[in-house]
Amino acid sequence: MTPIDDLKDVLGRSPELFPHGLDAGKDSISFVRLTRSDYAAASFLDARVLTPQSAGRTIPWPQVAAGIEAAQLAEHCAFIFHIGHVGSTLLSRLIGAHPGALALREPLLLRTFTELHSTPAAQPRTWRPEEFEARLSGCLKLLSRTFDGGQIAVLKATSFVSEFAAALLSRSSRPRAVMMYVSAESHMATILGGPNSRQEAKLLAPDRWQRLYRRMGRESHQLAPRGEGEMLALGWACETSALARAAAANAARVLKIDFERFLAEPEPVLAAAFRHLGIEAAASAVASILAGPDMRRYSKAPEYAYDAALRHAVLNEARAAHGAEIQRGLAWLDRAAEQFAVVREALVFAA
To answer: Over the stretch 213-225, which tens digit does the pLDDT of each residue have?
Structure first.
């Protein structure tokens, strides 16, 4: 067989050869071999999925494109978009527990395409629109592959990929999406409840300010955040407004899930998610999935116990310790909403 025939057979057989990364400068795709159990275990399909034993290969894009075409791969996947720290990994694991879904958590390719789309001038290579589209379509076809017939690949994105959600949802394949969020108050309490999430929010703040600033569309320096509460409010407004705009343009194919409501009523919310994604799930199957271990462990690190009661306790401790900062953040949102439609849209989306 020719190299293209060989690649066609490998790509068309299963998703075992996973497209891990896109090197824009070299115009190549790096692949790594993942088993069915590797997909199920991985909380992140980025550098963290690699081990010293990982078997991989890097292939120039023209060869990958020829293999995709020869294998007649189709772009057919669904998405989970979210604002961060709102149970998206948990929902992905629960959906992936159903035989009708293959859950992929935070594939690096989605982040790369978001960055290329948002800041093309800062990237090592700038493609013409048709070149960018060819690589995006090809990679989505690769990510749409499943192990079993009748399955759908459900791609849980990294939070800032919400910036690219509107473009992904507008594709001709008409993908469906679940969007996860919580109220601003709940989100700030969640972040303030853990030192790691507070540090992460601080690191992400400059990028979030720039993204929100672009959506505001006019001078807003007077709203530059001062203090942690305002910084967290800005982060919530940035990510939630991205979801709000993507949902407004694609309402029929978007299911909104408030994580607080999910925790209060998990069975009807999970059942609704399955229906929305076109996955047949009887009530008994939903109940069985929820009775499994996922609801009682920390989804990003399943070796740790974690459940709704513990989360509630952590949030209440954060509210008691950081109530003043939370109030400052909420006041910042009120001021921003008076001046900017995007912040009002975020508040309406999460109402």
So the answer is: 888 877 666 788 8
